[in-house]
Amino acid sequence: MRQDLLRHALNDIDLAVHLPLRDWDLLLRQARSADLLARLATLIERAGKLADVAPQPRAHLESALVLAEAQGTAVRREVEHVRLAVNSLGIDLVLLKGGAYLMAGLPASQGRLFSDLDILVPQDRLAEVEATLMLNGWATTHHDPYDQRYYRRWMHELPPMLHIRRMTVLDVHHAIVPATASLKPSSAALLAAARPLPDQLGLRVLAPADMVLHSATHLFYNEEFSHGLRDMSDLDLLLRHFMQEGDFWPGLISRAHELGLNRPLYYCLRYCKRLFATPIPESLLAEAGTHGTTARLMDKLWLRVLGSLHPSARDIGSAAAGQLLYLRAHWHRMPPWLLAYHLCMKSLRPGPRSEGTP
Amino acid sequence: MIVADLSPGDLQARLRTGLYLRTGPFVSCITSSEPLLAEGIALHYAEHAVETEFADFHVRIARPRNLRRWYRPQVRFYFDDAPSFHPLPADQAFPMLEWGLNWCVTNQAHRYLIIHAAVLQRQGKSLILPAPPGSGKSTLCAGLAHSGWRLLSDELALIDPDTGRVVPVPRPVSLKNRSIEILKAFAPQAVFNPTVSDTIKGDVAHMRAPPDALLRAEESAAPGWIVMPHFEAGAAPQLVEITRARGMMALIENAFNFDLHGRRGFDTLGDFVDQCRCYRYSYGSLADAIDGCNRLADAA
Amino acid sequence: MSLAEAWRISSNLELACRDWDEDEVVVFSQRLGHSLLLSAASARVLDLLATAAPQTLTQAELVERLLPLCAEGTPTGDIQSLLDVTLPEFYRIGLAEPWINSN
Predict the structure, then answer these.
(1) Is A198 touching B (CB cutoff 8 A)?
(2) Which one of C31, C34, C92, C93 makes the best mutation probe of the A interface by having the most chain A beta carbons within 10 Å?
(3) Residue ranges of E strands in A29-106
(4) Nearest in space to C39 (alpha carbons), one of C52, C20, C26, C51
C-alpha cells in the first residue's frame, strides 16, 4: 500500500483526503516525481474536498493548482501562435496529446503539466510548415549533424523546435510512430478523421478513438517511461470520457484493426483496468486480443514500470525492467541493424550535459 | 523539541536518516553525513523546532559518486533524490543547504507570491527591500535585524494571497565579502559561522537570525513600506518617495512567480501596495541607512 | 501621413489597472501575461481605445476626446506629440494596432 500510495489516492479521493500527515509526506513525493501532483490536486478540488486536506499538504496542492493553471494559460497562448503560423499555409492545425486535451476541454487536461506542444502535419507539407515556423521565430534545437540525420531520416517528427523569444518547445510530427517502426498506422487516415473544435477556427484534434490509440501507442512503444503512470491516468480519463458516446467501444476496436494498433490498445485496456479499474466491458477485453504465452512476463514488466518512479515505489527489479522495455521499444521502432547502429553512435558520443545550475 | 536539545552525536544520527527541521511555515527533511553541515545546523538552527511526521521538502547533501570523492571532495544537493545544481567543494556544504532551501521555496511554494526581497518589521508593519544583488540589501537587512527591527527573511518575501500579509521564513542571513566585516563591527553580538572563501559568490558567511525573529516566526506582518535600497560609497543619505505604481512594479519585477499567479497575483500585489508608502533610498553608510528606516517607522 | 489611419485596442487583452491618482499607473494584461508601467496620460489613451472597442479611433478623434481631460489651455500640439509616441509604443508591446479604414 505504501509503495502504491499514489495510485490508491488517485483511485479513491476520499481515502487521499483523510490520509495521516505521515502518508502525505510520501504521497506528495510520489505524485511530484510522477508529474501527477497537479492531477491529484485537481481531482480533490473538483470533488470539493480541498478544505478537508490538512493545511500542510494542502499548501502543496494549491501550489500545484497555481502551476497547472498558469501552464494552461501559457499553452493556450502558444497554440494561438502556432495556429496562426500553420493556418497561413491553408492547413488546419492538428494538436496531439496534452495540447489537444486542453483545447478540447477534456478531463484528461485537468492538472496535466506540459513540457512542450505536439502537432501533426501532413508529410507532404512538412517542409513548408517547418519553413513557416522558422520565419515566425522557431529554430531547430539539434545542431549535431548526426542528430539531424537521425530525426529526419528515421523519426516521426522534426527535431524539437524552440521559439527564440518565448523559449517554448514545439514537436512537429508527421506520423505517430517512427518511419522505421513495425507498426505503421496511416497518418493520412488520422488526419482525415481529425475533428474541428467548436468555436475554434483552424484548429483540430484527433477523433476520440484515434486520440486513445495514439496515447496508447506513444506509451507502450516509447523508450521513456518516467511518465508511465501519468500517461495511464490520461488514458483512464480519456476512456471514461469517451465511453459516454454510445458506440465508442466497438468503434475503438475496429479503428485499432484498421490502423494496425491492436497490440497497444490491448495493453492500454488491460492495464487501465488493472491500475485504475476503468469500467471496460470484459467482452471487449477478450475481443481486443489474447495475452499470449509471454503474458505473465509482460504483466510483470509493465506493471512495474507503470508504477510511480519515486524511490519508495521502485523496487530493485524496476530499473532492470525499465532497461528491458527500453530495448523492446527500440526493437519495435527500428529494424535490428539500425538499432545496433544507433546504440553504438549514442555510446560513442558524449552524453548531454547534466542538469545546469538553477 | 528544538535542535539545541540534541547532542552533537544525536544531531548527526538524525541527519543520517533525515532531520525534520522547521523554518517558518516550512519543514525540511535534511539528510547528510557532512560534519560541516551538522555544525552549521547546530549553530544557526539551535532554536528551531524538530518535527517528526511531515516535511514540505526532502533534501539531501551528499558526495556524488566519482573520483573526487577522495581528491578535493565535493558535495551535491538532491531534491526528492534528484540531483540539482552543480556540485560544490565540500567545505561549502552549509551555504549549499541555504541556497538549496531557497530554491525549494521558490520552486515549490507557489501558494504564495514570492518576491526576491528582504523583509523586516517594526510598529506592526513590514519593510520590504526588493533589490537585485549588489544593492546592499542583505547588509542593510542584517543591520536592521540588530537595530530593533524583527527579521522575517533576508531573501524571500512570501505574500499570502488569502490574507495579504507577509509570512516570515526566519533563516540565517547570507553576507558576502566586505559586508561580513562591516556587520561584525556594527553588531558585535551577532553570531556568525566561519567564512567560506572562493564560492561562486565570493566569500560567504551566514549570520544567525536574532532570537526575536525565531520567537515570532509564526507572526505575519501587515504591508508598510517598500524601499529600494541603493548603496553608493560616501554618498549622502537621500530618501525619495516614489509612486505606488513604481513600488508595485518593483515587487512584480523581483517576483519569482508573478507570471504563474496571473490576474489574482496582480490584484494581491495591488491591494498590498494600496497600504504601502514607497521610496528609493541612496545611502553611503550602514548607520545612515538604518537611521533613515527608523525615521520612516517613527513617522508612522 | 496618417490619412485614414485609425487605431484599435488588441483583442482579448483582459486588462486590469491600478491607479493611485499619481503620474503613473500599472496595467496588466492577462493575455500578454505581463505588467506595464504607463504614464497617466498614456493610460488615458488606452482607456479611450478600450472604451471605443470594437470601433477604431483616428488620431483626430483621440485628440478631440483627450482635450477635455487635459488642463485648460493645453495646446493640441502637445496631445498630438503624446499620441505620436504612445501609439507606436502600444503597437510594439501588443496593446493596440493601426487599422486602415478601407472605405
Answers:
(1) no
(2) C31
(3) 93-96
(4) C26
Chains that touch B (3 or more CB pairs under 8 A): A, C
Residues 6+ apart with CB under 8 A from B133: none
Residues of B in contact with C34 (CB under 8 A): 259
**Whole-Å CA distances, A207 to A101, B100, B126:** 12, 46, 56
Nearest in space to B232 (alpha carbons), one of B135, B138, B142, B154:
B135
Q: Is B231 helix (H, G, I), strand (E, B) or coil?
A: strand
The pLDDT-based confidence of B147 (bands split at 50, 70, 90) is very high
Strand order in the sheet with C15-19: C15-19, C24-29, C34-39
The helix (H) or strand (E) run that includes residue C64 is helix C59-66
The β-bridge relationship of strands B277-283 and B222-231 is parallel
Q: What is the distance between the alpha carbons of residues A297 and A266, in angstroms, rounded to a whole number?
A: 15
Q: Which of B72, B70, B174, B157 is nearest to B115 (CA)?
A: B157
Domain map of chain A by residue range? 5-347
Disruptive mutation site among B21, B78, B108 for chain A (greatest number of A CBs within 10 Å): B108
Q: How far apart are CA B233 and CA C69, in angstroms?
A: 45
Q: Are B283 and B229 in contact (CB under 8 A)?
A: yes
Chain B: nearest CA to C89, how far in angstroms?
A: 19
Specify the range with the lowest mean pLDDT, choosing from A118-122, A345-349, B24-28. A345-349
Interface residue B260 vs chain C (CB under 8 A): no
Residue in A33, A56, A310 nearest the CB of B56 = A56
Angle of the A37-46 helix axis to the A21-33 helix axis, nearest 10: 120
Phi, psi (degrees; rounded to nearest 5) at C22? -110, -170
Considering all CA atoms of chain B, what is the largest pairwise distance in Å, rounded to the nearest integer? 61
Residues facing residue B229 across a β-bridge: B281
Q: Could you give the CA distance from residue A13 to residue A9 in angstroms, rounded to a whole number?
A: 6
A77 touching chain C per CB within 8 A = yes
Chain B partners within 8 Å of A356 (Cβ): 86
Tell me the per-residue pLDDT of A214-270, one tens digit each, with 9 for 90 and over: 999 988 877 566 678 999 999 999 999 999 988 999 999 999 999 999 989 999 999
* Residue B183 CB contacts under 8 Å (≥ 6 apart), including other chains: B139, B142, B143, B175, B190, B207
Q: How many beta-carbon contacts under 8 Å exist across B and C?
A: 41
Residues A351 and A347: their CA atoms lie apart, in Å, by 8
- CATH topology assigned to domain C11-97: Arc Repressor Mutant, subunit A (1.10.10)
Q: What is the dihedral of CA C81, C86, C88, C91, to 10 degrees?
A: -160
- The pLDDT confidence band at residue A339, using thresholds 50, 70 and 90, is very low
Instruction: Provide, as residue numbers in chain B, all residues whose Cβ is less than 8 Å from the Cβ of C33.
Output: 259, 262
Alpha-carbon gap: C14 to the closest alpha carbon of chain A (Å): 13
Nearest to B237 by CA among B183, B277, B285: B285
Sequence spans of domains, chain C: 11-97
Question: What would the grid cell of residue A247 be?
Answer: 458506440
All partners of chain C with 3 or more CB pairs under 8 angstroms? A, B
Query: Which residue carries 515505489 as its cell?
Result: A313
* ipTM (interface pTM): 0.89
pTM of the predicted model as reported, rounded to 2 decimal places: 0.85
A76 has a chain C CB within 8 A of its CB: no
Q: What grid cell was written down for B233?
A: 560609497
